[in-house]
Specification:
Length: 950
């Protein structure tokens, strides 16, 4: 049965602002879905309130509505578009599903004659309502953990009495494990039960016996109207049950599952999917398996939508789940669709992997002082990285190198823990850095059995770790000139970085690199092709590895490299790595637009990134995708292989910018603003000299490298003082101090966590107004794309402030100073591309806080508010293809646009919610108002000083 021709217009519901538990994987799904539907000639209407995403780009749909995700907005859209035939709610996470259900209950879909595709209401209800789901599993004979449902406090107490402890409390209809918890002790039960009941929109929780220590697996499935089902990917959680899958280190394909149990699990998953209603689309099923030889399987949950894991599974296999799921929702059958990678086989096939994937989450606990740092049922990570390798060890190393937490991989960097009690504590109470702690424990000589007994991590994984440590020990007995080739090759095949090998040998990273070159140990690139090279892949999506040389019959030796270099002129765009607070999805938006603009200018585009949730790592965004760590060694090898005209660093946030110095030192051309200018803007001393020359005011400041220097400086600068380390993003480590004691404590604290860093002390302009401007410059002309005024006073990080575009109460005199300062600074820094400048305004004088010659968090927001593709223009200027005067700027905005930050404090009960110079928001939404009399503006303005913390 081919596509349903009665569907001509579809409404896609997005997932709203990024929060912990629901991140940019839904931007990826929504973007892919919109493209997939439009390929079929379907008109797409899209609603989402997140301005930072590619999904809400005007090019993605026929009509994009940046509106709050509520039924009022849905009704407005359905009235404006009576032609909407169907709604697809499976691409926007839990937010979209919940909104869709609410609209169904209110009869909105029926009123406007709109039908649901991709899922049915029955399926959502059965899978989200824990009681209904439990009954369904019983009916179809699939084992589940003993559990009972409670809709009241008293009922919950009764169940606990019956089951005994430990227990798990899981609220219905929540995402990212919100409100879920383990209860080990009777004393904690009352509080945790109350939290669970409150977290569920229907005040219902499931209380089940904790399957502590069981192994956890996920399967990603697709099903069509004809009841064909394919399993796209099996994923194994390295961590046992008890840690939310979003916070688990996961591996694909499953590593420690016997084939017999895997087949049983497949059958169960297919049976479950077929029994939750009649729908076509994607599904994620989670199972627990007993860690003994019986391998008993218990079903945990099923999600009838694309999920965080389906983004991972798509990137892991190259099979675009959201794209195919959208076509299935239109009525297509799997055997009628093409495999998007080979373009010659059908989509009704199960991908086979000849490589291993490791996903590691990325946390930001340092932003939440006093946060409970142990991991459990509530998800706490803000992003993730994925490594692809020929072995688990190589993939694990690549993933740890991608995290950007100042580690070079596992071990061999002198940064591990060496205190026995601390290591045992971190193994007992799972912590964010346990991927490294396991290595430290083995290094300390703690037996594998003991580590297994504490963590319940499968022995297979622990042995892999042990092998890595054994290899490190062996290499450490050599010097650079005595190291045998086979040992160096083995270390590279197992993922050790040159930096780590240099640490083992006591030499420089560059010496190891040269030794490798000399010995002919070079990276080769392999295709991610969904079918283990059984059919030819048409999509250039690569990962690197190391191979033994092969000798041909004529005696020549070679290694097989699948990445063929073309003779086209090329440009490399460096991605922004894992999402974190201070560097989120807005840089993915900028990278995607940069790639598309370079492509329009006739360049072959090459994307390097390691974030599985993003659109920039979709296999058909750039001409070539290297799914590799944004880590010097990997980037340098790709550049040497591809020989591009240059590299764009200003679109990937601080991650890409930090690599500019190395690129410059190695003579690789940086497209756009030079490294010299980027460095000048980061170096406060030199930047202040420049401002003095330009006669532009800035707050008095000093630089200190010890607590003693800081206290001496304070006498000259006057309190309050803003203290911050240089070269950080998202206000990391920033604090306002009001006396010498606070100053001393904070400085000692900072130098302990970032040794050797210089600290900047600024006189804090108390009560000042903060504003910022984004501009495009070509070295001669400057065009200011937007000036925003912050509603919160100076001192709250710009990422945590509500910002209005255009400003709402800056006089003509102040606005003129902002414009003049922006132009002068952009030209003085010889900016080519984008620049963001932040200002503090006090007594009608505009002071400069900082200038960042790169894409900023606010560029996508301004582009959406004004309806103009500023990143596209800026990229063409960086490439030297266009000048500012070649563009006709015509911004369109009625009234005001407000960028509203969104926080995920609910994941960290007990954390101080005050705002200050360190950024804490995880995402943002956009709000359009006609005038300043709007109630929402009034409410924001009246609360503006409430959270300021000193």
């Amino acid at each position: 049965m081919p596509k349903d021709t009665s569907i001509k217009t579809v409404l896609i519901i997005g997932s709203g602002p990024i929060i912990i538990g629901q991140a940019c994987e839904f931007d990826y799904a929504g973007s892919q879905s919109a493209r997939s539907l439009r390929e079929e000639g379907i008109k797409v209407i899209l609603i989402n309130s997140n301005p930072a995403t590619i999904m809400t780009d005007p090019s993605m749909a026929d009509h994009v509505y940046l509106k709050p995700l509520n039924t009022k907005s849905i009704i407005e859209i359905l009235k404006a578009h009576p032609e909407i035939d169907a709604v697809l709610p499976t691409m926007g996470g839990q937010t979209a599903l919940n909104l869709c259900l609410e609209a169904e209950e209110k009869g909105i879909w029926a009123d406007f004659n709109v039908r649901l595709i991709g899922v049915d209401v029955n399926a959502i209800n059965i899978t989200e309502d824990r009681e209904q789901f439990k009954q369904l599993l019983e009916k179809i004979g699939i084992p589940a953990a003993p559990a009972k449902t409670a809709t009241s406090f008293l009922k919950g107490k009764e169940i606990a009495q019956e089951f005994g402890f430990p227990l798990v409390i899981r609220p219905s209809f929540t995402l990212g494990g919100s409100g879920a918890s383990f209860v080990h002790r009777k004393e904690d039960f009352d509080e945790l039960l109350t939290r669970g009941l409150e977290a569920s929109p229907i005040h219902e929780v499931l209380i089940d016996k904790a399957l502590l220590g069981w192994k956890e697996y996920e399967l990603e499935l697709l099903r069509d109207k004809n009841d064909n089902v394919v399993i796209i990917c099996s994923i194994e959680n390295m961590d046992p049950m008890g840690i939310h899958t979003g916070d688990s280190i996961t591996v694909a394909p499953a590593m420690t599952l016997s084939d017999r149990t895997y087949q049983k699990m497949r059958d169960m998953a297919i049976k479950m999917m077929r029994s939750i209603g009649n729908f076509a689309g994607g599904c994620n099923v989670q199972f627990a398996v007993s860690p003994d030889e019986k391998e008993d399987i218990v079903a945990i949950e099923i999600n009838p939508r694309v999920s965080r894991s389906s983004a991972l599974a798509s990137k892991a296999t190259g099979y675009p789940i959201a794209k195919i799921a959208s076509k299935l929702a239109l009525g297509y059958h799997l055997d009628e669709l093409m495999n998007q990678i080979t373009k010659s086989t059908s989509a009704l096939f199960e991908p086979t992997l000849d490589y291993v994937i490791v996903k590691i989450p990325r946390w930001n606990f340092d932003k939440f002082e006093g946060a409970e740092r142990t991991l459990g049922l509530q998800m706490k990570s803000v992003g993730e990285v994925m490594g692809i390798g020929r072995s688990f060890q190589e993939a694990l190393h690549k993933a740890t190198q991608s995290l950007e937490i100042k580690r070079n991989g596992l071990g061999a960097d002198g940064k591990g823990y060496t205190n026995y009690d601390q290591i045992i504590d971190k193994l007992t109470n799972p912590s964010w850095d346990r991927v490294f702690v396991l290595y430290d424990a083995i290094q300390m000589g703690i037996p594998l059995n003991r580590i297994h007994e504490i963590t319940k991590i499968d022995m297979w994984f622990l042995r892999q770790y042990e092998e890595l440590y054994t290899l490190e020990k062996e290499i450490s007995t050599f010097k650079l000139d005595t190291l045998p080739k086979e040992l160096l090759l083995e270390a590279k095949q197992k993922g050790f970085a040159d930096r780590q090998i240099a640490y083992m040998l006591g030499c420089l990273e560059s010496q190891v690199y040269n030794k490798r070159e000399e010995m002919g140990i070079k990276r080769v690139y392999k295709l991610v092709d969904t079918c283990a090279a059984e059919f030819e892949a048409k999509t250039p999506y690569y990962y690197s590895t190391f191979e033994e040389e092969i000798e041909k019959a004529d005696g020549t030796r070679y290694v097989h490299n699948e990445s063929i270099v073309s003779d086209r002129k090329k440009v490399v765009v460096l991605g922004s790595g894992p999402n974190r607070i201070g560097q989120g999805i807005e840089f993915d938006y900028s990278c995607v637009h940069g790639v598309l603009a370079a492509s329009e200018c006739g360049y072959e585009t090459i994307m390097i990134n390691c974030n599985p949730e993003t659109v920039s790592t979709d296999f058909d965004t750039a001409d070539k995708l290297y799914f590799e760590p944004v880590f010097w060694e990997h980037i340098y090898d790709i550049i040497r292989h591809e020989k591009p005209e240059g590299v764009i660093v200003q679109l990937g946030g601080q991650t890409a910018l930090k690599l500019a110095e190395k690129l410059d030192r190695y003579g690789i051309k940086i497209l756009g603003t030079s490294f010299e200018a980027l460095d000048l803007a980061e170096d406060r001393g030199r930047f202040s000299e420049l401002l003095t020359e330009l006669k532009i005011p800035f707050p008095k400041f000093g630089v200190a490298s010890s607590a003693e220097e800081a206290v001496t400086l304070a006498d000259d600068l006057d309190f309050p003082l803003l203290v911050r380390p240089s070269y950080v993003l998202g206000g990391q480590g920033m604090k306002i101090v009001i006396n010498k004691q606070e100053l001393e404590e904070h400085v000692i604290d900072l130098l302990k966590s970032i040794p050797g860093n210089k600290l900047l002390l600024d006189h804090y302009l108390d009560g000042a107004i903060e504003a910022e401007a984004d501009a495009i410059c070509d070295g001669e002309d400057v065009y200011i794309i937007g000036i925003m005024e912050h509603i919160e006073p100076c001192g709250v990080h710009s990422g945590d402030s509500n910002a209005t575009l255009p400003p709402f109460n800056l006089g003509e005199f102040v606005m003129q100073q902002i414009k003049d300062h922006t132009r002068k600074i952009a030209l003085a820094l010889k900016t080519v591309g984008l620049i963001n400048i932040q200002f503090a305004i006090k007594d009608d004088t505009v002071y400069i806080i900082e200038a960042n010659p790169r894409a900023s968090r606010t560029v996508p927001f301004i582009a959406k508010a004004y309806g103009e593709p500023y990143v596209n223009y800026a990229t063409k200027i960086m490439l030297g293809e266009k000048k500012v005067k070649d563009f006709t700027f015509n911004p369109q905005l009625k009234g005001y646009a407000i960028k509203q930050p969104v926080f995920s404090f609910n994941k960290f009960p007990g954390v101080n919610k005050k705002l200050g110079p360190e950024m804490k928001s995880t995402g943002e939404s956009i709000l359009f108002i006609d005038d300043l009399k709007d109630d929402q503006f009034y409410e924001l303005y009246s609360r503006r000083k409430m959270y300021l913390s000193k």
